[in-house]
């Protein structure tokens, strides 16, 4: 690298400008706004901790929204990852149509975030919809999917789990890179399939589990389209996730300060959980060729 | 004598061992076959459950309104294209053609801007040394993990001050400034895996760094760039929150907003119109995916991704 040192920065200039204008400054601005009252008409008015105090003492919608969001994330992420790993494990075998299956399982991930699929969900989980028609074959009474708070959250969770394709593809790539001779050695020593899975497979793919865990968690906390289209946050705010609440406060009631405060609480929760994951990863994530002593 | 009996012992033992080994092999083969059958059964079962809603969607879009909530099968009893014809017209002065055109107008500049800016930035990161490089690359990872909710409101205020509301600029510009950190990260990883011999040779032959980028690096990056464009196309096609916040006039609506509008404005029982338009809105993404699935799968495996 003998070239001028500034040349690299010239190539990076769009990124640096964008970083400043669209990420760094907005990030700080939203922190500032969270301590103000701002309705876009008058300039922001400093109110100190007022927004936060209101959030945590008198705002029952916030409390409901927060607990629903946490429930949603803790339900969705493990379910989705377990399912993705299970299917990847089954696919990781000399099967004839592996590419065909991989493609088929990936299709929902292509479409999952779209409005069309949220619309489809509304139809198939309707009281007289496809799901209840199929359940009727097994003699199960029609379920009121959107009328009952627990069921409604569950349909939103299912929509996310349905899009397990990209997590699966990442798991599959990791599984395929595991040295087969390890399994042969374990089999000779009399280890069962389950034991090899738990003691060989899982430890070797912990970096990928960790990666998927972080990515899925950060995304799940920001879920918007599903609840917005399918349940509109209801019934009884049982699917009123924090991103919906932030959207309503900011873009319907134009209370930018209050919305920023909610956004910051959400951000701090995601940050805290990410940090916990990183910190705990030292104990459970194994990197091949790890030089840490 | 003892030699002979010994030999016969050895022989029978050998034969036994051979038979044992064969039996073992047969058991293993049977196990392998059972395992394969089980795997196929699970995969087919899961695949069917996963894809049936989509198959049903396509079938239902050709059904009459009365049949949609009465027939769990996907083949319509009385096929009709009424849903498509009426859904296309919409309840607005515009047809869905207009909304597809708007989506296209959002996607094309955004994708081109993404490809150009991310290539430049990735090249800068992978091939140059400069002050603060470590810090800047850390910021790429940080953006990757930073939840958008936290920057969305000030971004809106910024675009409002700039007078960009109700235009496509808020959707184009951040991406055209390499704002999608995931793509930068993916291209940097890709470039780092390519030795820079060719670029050295080009420099010896008198190319400057821009020429090297354009004529040597970009061709080598092509497969990764295709992945970038495909993902950006797909994500933008599916994006709803961005247009929801920034686009307010119906004549600028992309298909995602138009579909939401048709849910809100269509008569409660005109289900097949909405289903028909849903099918149309997912068709471009599906078509692109099936034409270029290799790039999608490689892209995810290379960078690891959302969705």
UniProtKB/TrEMBL annotation, chain A:
PROSITE patterns: ABC_TM1 (PS50928). Its main location: membrane. One of its GO terms (cellular component) is plasma membrane. The keyword RNA-binding does not apply. Coiled coil: none annotated. It is a multi-pass membrane protein. Keywords: Cell membrane, Membrane, Transmembrane, Transmembrane helix, Transport. Residues 66-277 form the ABC transmembrane type-1 domain. Gene3D superfamilies: MetI-like. SUPFAM superfamilies: MetI-like (SSF161098). It is found in: Cell membrane. One of its GO terms (biological process) is transmembrane transport. Pfam families: BPD_transp_1. The chain crosses the membrane at residues 12-35, 70-91, 103-124, 152-175, 196-218, 258-279. The keyword Kinase does not apply. It comes from the Bacteria. Belongs to the binding-protein-dependent transport system permease family. This is ABC transporter, membrane spanning protein (Sugar). It comes from Salipiger bermudensis (strain DSM 26914 / JCM 13377 / KCTC 12554 / HTCC2601). The lineage of its organism: Bacteria, Pseudomonadati, Pseudomonadota, Alphaproteobacteria, Rhodobacterales.
From TrEMBL, chain B:
The chain crosses the membrane at residues 36-55, 99-123, 135-159, 171-191, 212-235, 274-292. It is a multi-pass membrane protein. Residues 100-292 form the ABC transmembrane type-1 domain. It is found in: Cell membrane. Keywords: Cell membrane, Membrane, Transmembrane, Transmembrane helix, Transport. This is ABC transporter, membrane spanning protein (Sugar). Its main location: membrane. One of its GO terms (biological process) is transmembrane transport. PANTHER family: ABC TRANSPORTER PERMEASE PROTEIN MG189-RELATED-RELATED, ABC TRANSPORTER PERMEASE PROTEIN YESQ-RELATED. The keyword Transport applies. InterPro entries: MetI-like (IPR000515), MetI-like_sf (IPR035906). GO terms for cellular component: plasma membrane.
């Amino acid at each position: 690298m003998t070239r001028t040192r500034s040349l690299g920065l010239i190539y990076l200039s769009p990124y640096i400008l964008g970083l400043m204008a669209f990420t760094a400054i907005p990030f700080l601005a939203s922190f500032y706004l969270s301590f103000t009252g701002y309705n876009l008409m008058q300039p922001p008015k400093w109110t100190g901790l007022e927004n936060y105090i209101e959030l945590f003492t008198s705002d029952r919608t916030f409390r409901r929204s927060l607990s629903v969001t946490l429930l949603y994330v803790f339900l969705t992420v493990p379910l989705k990852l377990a399912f993705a790993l299970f299917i990847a494990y089954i696919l990781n075998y000399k099967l004839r149509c592996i590419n065909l299956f991989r493609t088929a399982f990936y299709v929902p991930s292509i479409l999952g975030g779209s409005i069309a699929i949220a619309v489809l969900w509304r139809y198939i989980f309707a009281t007289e919809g496809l799901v209840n028609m199929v359940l009727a074959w097994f003699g199960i009474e029609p379920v009121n999917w959107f009328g009952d708070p627990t069921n409604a959250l569950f349909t939103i969770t299912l929509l996310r789990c349905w899009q397990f394709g990209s997590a699966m593809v990442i798991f599959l790539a990791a599984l395929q890179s595991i040295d087969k001779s390890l399994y042969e050695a374990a089999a000779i020593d009399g280890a069962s399939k389950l034991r090899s899975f738990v003691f060989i497979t899982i430890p070797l793919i912990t970096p990928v589990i960790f990666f998927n865990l972080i990515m899925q968690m950060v995304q799940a906390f920001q879920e918007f389209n599903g609840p917005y289209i399918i349940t509109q946050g209801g019934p009884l705010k049982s699917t009123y996730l924090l991103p919906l609440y932030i959207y309503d406060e900011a873009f319907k009631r134009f209370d930018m300060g209050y919305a920023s405060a909610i956004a910051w609480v959400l951000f701090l929760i995601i940050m805290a959980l990410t940090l916990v994951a990183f910190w705990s990863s030292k104990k459970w994530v194994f990197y091949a060729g790890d030089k840490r002593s | 004598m003892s030699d002979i009996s010994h030999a016969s012992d050895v022989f029978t033992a050998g034969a036994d061992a051979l038979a044992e080994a064969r039996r073992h092999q047969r058991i293993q083969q049977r196990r392998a076959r059972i395992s394969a059958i089980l795997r196929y059964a699970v995969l087919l079962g899961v695949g069917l459950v996963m894809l049936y809603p989509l198959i049903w969607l396509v079938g239902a879009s050709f059904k009459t309104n009365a049949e949609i909530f009465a027939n769990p099968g996907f083949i319509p009893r009385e096929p009709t294209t009424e849903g498509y014809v009426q859904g296309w017209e919409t309840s607005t002065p515009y047809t869905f053609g207009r909304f597809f055109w708007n989506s296209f107008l959002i996607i094309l500049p955004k994708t081109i801007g993404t490809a150009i800016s991310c290539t430049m930035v990735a090249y800068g990161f992978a091939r140059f040394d400069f002050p603060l490089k470590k810090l800047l690359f850390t910021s790429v990872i940080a953006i990757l993990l930073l939840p958008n909710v936290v920057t969305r409101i000030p971004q809106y205020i910024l675009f409002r001050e700039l007078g960009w509301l109700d235009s496509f600029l808020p959707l184009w510009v951040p991406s055209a400034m390499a704002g999608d950190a995931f793509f930068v990260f993916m291209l940097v990883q890709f470039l780092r895996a390519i030795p820079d011999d060719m670029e050295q040779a080009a420099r010896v032959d008198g190319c400057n760094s821009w020429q090297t980028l354009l004529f040597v690096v970009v061709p080598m990056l092509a497969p990764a760039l295709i992945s970038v464009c495909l993902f950006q196309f797909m994500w933008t096609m599916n994006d709803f929150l961005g247009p929801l916040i920034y686009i307010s006039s119906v004549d600028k609506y992309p298909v995602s907003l138009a579909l939401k509008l048709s849910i809100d404005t269509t008569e409660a029982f005109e289900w097949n119109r909405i289903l028909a338009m849903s099918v149309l809105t997912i068709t471009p993404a599906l078509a692109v995916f099936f034409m270029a699935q290799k790039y999608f799968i490689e892209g995810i495996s290379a960078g690891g991704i959302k969705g």
